[in-house]
Amino acid sequence: MSDILKTAAHPAVFPWLCLAFGLVVGSFLNVVIHRLPKMMERDWLEQCAELAHAGGSPAPPPQPKPETYNLFVPRSRCPACGHGIAAAENIPLFSWAMLRGRCSACKARISARYPLVELLGGIAAAWSAMRFGFGPAAFAAMAFAWCIIAASFIDFDTQLLPDSITLPLLWLGLLLNAGGLFTDLRSAVIGAAAGYLALWSVYWLFKLATGKEGMGFGDFKLLAAIGAWCGWQMLPLAILLSSFIGAAVGIALMVFARHGRSVPIPFGPYLGAAGIVALFWGPQLTRQYLSQFM
Questions:
Q1: pTM for the whole thing?
Q2: Torsion of CA 80, 122, 277, 232, to 10 degrees
């Protein structure tokens, strides 16, 4: 191991390097949160147009070629005035503070959620480094937390959990645990199946009882991914924590924000938070709980 790598891997240095890198990743997560739902909408519209044309509907008149739009193109810009964001205006946390939360061109307000996501990305990376130390587990835990952050905010905005996040997260958990990184492969496979089936069963029981859909299919896949990463043993903890947090937030919204009962509340952020707790502290919490009965 080179001297530079030894220095980077030192317990006093590694978390700080990860914090800085996590802040940069958090800035990219803001792009994912903003653009991925729009990319999904574009894909759905294109598929609907193709199906309508295949079904015999007349072809629409030629349209100008749409602007390339993905996670990297075009450059980030102010949604209010279209001002292109320069590199100096895109430094995590620092730029938002220096601009006082406003666009440098039109002075439109920039949501405080942007630095919040950056900060969460940095904290997730730094804590992964402190919790697991320099090695594959730390970098894997960072990736898990970053995916959870992006999926949670997208679900909060749109009530959608994209397959392009949940399914790769599920498969990555199984692949990592093929080598026993966080749990054994058998527990991971059972966890993925049990996680999906647990919420799938709740969904159908609720629908048969009320005629309404209580949650989306993305929630099933997210819990399956949590099971694949943490193993089936952590699923009761994840379900209990997410249900408790979700119920507390829902009651608070109805009492203090006059949130109507018919207005849907995304469950993904609470599942994601519970998944992070399960990955980082699940075994310790489970042992402490079980020790009370022994």
A1: 0.90
A2: 90
Which residues touch 154 (CB under 8 Å, ≥6 apart)? 32, 33, 36, 37, 160, 161, 162, 165
Tokens for 94, please give them. Answer: 């620092």
Q: What is the pLDDT of residues 12-30, one digit of tens each?
A: 889 999 999 999 999 999 9
Q: Is the pLDDT of residue 1 over 60?
A: no
- List alpha helices for 55-112, DSSP H: 94-98
Q: What is the largest CA-CA distance in the chain?
A: 73
Return the residue matching tokens 């492969």.
Answer: 185
In degrees, to the nearest 5, what angle opens at C-alpha 39 toward C-alphas 69 and 154? 125
The pLDDT tens digits for 188-204 are 999 999 999 999 998 88
Q: What angle do CA 86, 88, 91 make, to 5 degrees?
A: 110
DSSP assignment of 252-271, as one string? HHHHHS---TTS---SHHHH
Helix (H, G, I), strand (E, B) or coil at 50: helix
Sole residue written with tokens 């009882």: 209
Q: Report residue 276 CA to chain centroid gap.
A: 10
Q: Using CA atoms, how far apart are residues 186 and 286, in angstroms rounded to an integer?
A: 19
Would you tell me how many other CB atoms lie within 10 Å of the CB of residue 123?
Answer: 17
Instruction: Give the tens place of pLDDT for each residue, 131-173.
Output: 999 999 999 999 999 999 999 999 999 989 999 999 999 999 9
Instruction: Write out pLDDT tens, residues 100-124.
Output: 888 888 888 989 999 999 999 999 9
> What span, in angstroms and rounded, lies between the C-alpha atoms of 93 and 174?
34
Cα(76)–Cα(88) distance, integer angstroms: 13
Q: List Cβ neighbours of 98 (8 Å cut-off, separation of 6 or more).
A: none
Could you identify the residue written with the tokens 């990743």? 25
